[in-house]
Amino acid sequence: MSTETMTNIPVHVSLIMDGNGRWAKERGKERVYGHFEGVGSVRACVEASVEYGVKYLSLYAFSEENWNRPQEEVDTLMGLMVKAMADEMDSLDKNGVRFLVLGNRARLADELNATIDSCMERTKDNKTLTLIIFLSYSGKWDILQAARKMAEEMAASPERRQEIEEMGVDGFDRYLVTAGVPDPDLIVRTSGESRLSNYLLWQGAYSELLFVDTLWPDFRKEEFRKALESYAKRDRRYGKVK
Predict the structure, then answer these.
(1) Among residues 18, 183, 185, 218, which one is catalytic?
(2) Active-site residue (options: 8, 20, 66, 87)
(3) Which of 44, 37, 3, 40 is nearest to 20 (CA)?
(4) 18 is catalytic
(5) For a tag on the chain, would you pick the N or C end, based on fewer CB atoms within 10 A?
(6) pLDDT per residue over 197-241, tens digit each?
């Protein structure tokens, strides 16, 4: 199916990038080798998103739980992220891609945060695609920090108690780190695992889920196209009867 004939394109596609370590192990390499190769898959999916007209592409790059991995692997991953941002930013900016990083950034090193801020500032006015990297993120953490923000707001303004008590789902959304970003229409997880792993638990309540066997370093444009085709065949009812 070509870009001209593709219909029912999701506004927001989110990818759980899993299988880097296994991909490297199958080739007799250390786990970090798979992470380096996975950068090529990120580039391919960004290009495919632009070609197909996807407006938001989000990537689960590093969870709160990933901080428990061996320190050497964590350090390598963080260094890779700094390098990848520096290497890819010219291309992203040229192609109208807005770059965002969401998560518990207080845990990130100063160098990485500085690089993130620079990239976000440079691309803030781009409109073609918003690329979101979820870094040091987990769904439960996001909901908890949102609840804390709401509690702090109520404590600071007791007169707003009734307003907050009557708040609906949309009102709570603004406390999440994804405020202003539409919920994902499609969440894809690579590597054959069939779980969300604490990812976008609130935002993904009505997302279409797709689990594929392909390991992340092998998930390129063809695999992305197949994911869009699978989504196009879904009937999204949101609890209603059609």
Answers:
(1) 18
(2) 66
(3) 37
(4) yes
(5) C
(6) 999 999 999 999 999 999 999 999 999 999 999 999 998 766 665
